[in-house]
Records
---
Amino acid sequence: MNWNDVYQKNKKLDLIFEEKFKNDEKMFEKNCIELIVEIAEFTNETRCFKYWSKKKIDKEDLLEELADSIMICLYFYNYLGIENIEVKNLDLVDDILVCINNLFKLSTEVLENLTKELIEKIFNYLIYIGKMLNLTEKEILEACIMKINKQEKRLESN
C-alpha cells in the first residue's frame, strides 16, 4: 500500500460525493473550511499546545484525526487533477508548534490561492508532523485506508 493507492481509493469516494451533492454550489468553499477544521481536530489530539494538561496522547485518536486531515487534502489533489502523490522531505524546523502554526497559515490560503505547490506543502506538513509525533508512514497509510473503508460503509448504508 502506498499513497497513490490511498489516493485512487479516495478519488472513488470523491466521485460519489460529487454526484450526491452535485447541486451544492458551495462544495469547494465548504471543503476549504473542512480542511481547516480537520487540521484543528488533529492539532487538538497532538496536545502540543496544552501546557496545562497531563493527559497523554491517544495514538488511535491522533491517527484518526490525521487521516481525516489527509483525506480532505487528497480531495484538493483530485480537484486540481494531480495524479501522483509523493511524500517529499521538506526542510522544516524541528518544532511542532512552528510547524502546526505554519500548517494553519497554509490551509487558510487554499480558498483564495489553491495551487499544486500549496496542497503538496500542506500534505507534506501533515506527514512530517505525524512523524514528529512518532507515527510511522505505514501507520498513517493504514489509518487512511481504515477511514476510507469507514466512509464506504457509511455511504452503502446511507
Note: The chain has one domain: 3-156.
---
Amino acid sequence: MRVKSKYPEHMEYRVESMWDGKTGGTITASDERQIVYDTPKTYAGRGEEICPDELFVSAVLGCLNNTFLDFQRGFEIELVSLKLNGKATAIFDGEGYKITGFQVTGEVVVGKDELETGQRCVELMQQYCHLTRSVKDCIPFEYDISVREE
C-alpha cells in the first residue's frame, strides 16, 4: 500500500569531503555544517576524531530517532526520553571488510497511559526509517527497544 507523505517526494543530500593532509578529513554539508573524521589507530590513523564507521552507525541512529519523533509528534504523545544505542559488526572476508549486522537497543519513556502508543511509534520507526529501509536487504537489523511509562 502506498503511503501519502506530507513531505517532499524527492530529496537530495550533498556533502563534500576534504582530506586533512594526514589520516582524515572534514565533511561539509550544503549548509556549511562540518564533521571532522579520522582513520582509527587500528588502521594506521591518528584516531583523533570519529571514524566513518561510527558516522554510519550515528547516521542510522539519527534517522531512527528522527523517524520516531515524527510519529511521536503526529500522535501527540508526551515523550520523556528516547535513548538508542547502535552496534555494527564487520568481518574481513578475505577481500575486504563488510558490515554483517546491525543491532539497535534502547529505551523510550513516555507519559502516563501512553505505553501502547509509544510502542506503536517504535514499530513505525523501525518500519519507516529511510536509511534502514535502504540497506535492510544487505545488512540484517536486530532491535531490542523497551518502552515504559513514567
Note: The two ends are 35 Å apart (CA to CA).
---
Amino acid sequence: MEREITVPVKLDAKTFRRFSFFDTFVLRKRWIRPAAFAAILFAFAAVALISRKPQSGLIAAVLLVVGLGLPLVYVGTFLSQVNLQAAKLDPPRRVYTVGLTFDGVRVANDQRKEDAQFVKWADVPAAFRRKGCVYLYVAPARAYLIPDGQANTDDEAVWSYLHEHMGERCKG
C-alpha cells in the first residue's frame, strides 16, 4: 500500500494572486470577451474615421475611449477584488490540509470545524504545475493550491504522485 502525502497548506498573498490570474485569464480565458469588445469598437472607430463625415472624429474618439475604458475597468476591478482577498493572507496562514491517498484527495478545512471533503482520483478533473505551486482542481470551478515545500515529501514526489494517479490530466 502506498503512503499518504500530507500537505498542511499555508497560503500567502503572492501565491493566491498568481493562482487567481492563472484561473481567470489562462484557464478560463476571461480576457477574450474584453479583447473582442475592444477590437470591435476599434474597428467601428476606424470605419468612422475613414468615412470622413462630419462628427466622425468625435464618434471615433468616443468609441476608442469606451473600447479601451471598459476592458481596463474590468481588469482593474478584477485586480482590486483579488488584492482585497489576498490582504487576508498577509501574514500567510494555514487554510487547509490536503491528503493525497491511494483512493483520492482528502481536504480538511483548518479554518473551521467541518467534515473533510473527499474526491476520488477518477473525479479529479485536472492538476496544473506552475511556478512555486500545484493547482489541484477537484471540480471544474474549485481548486486547492499545493505550494512547493509544504508537503511531507519533496515537490517532485508530490507531482509524480499526482501524475501517477491522474495521468494526462496533469498539465505543466
Note: Strands lie at 5-11, 93-100, 104-109, 117-120, 126-130, 133-139, 142-147, 170-171.
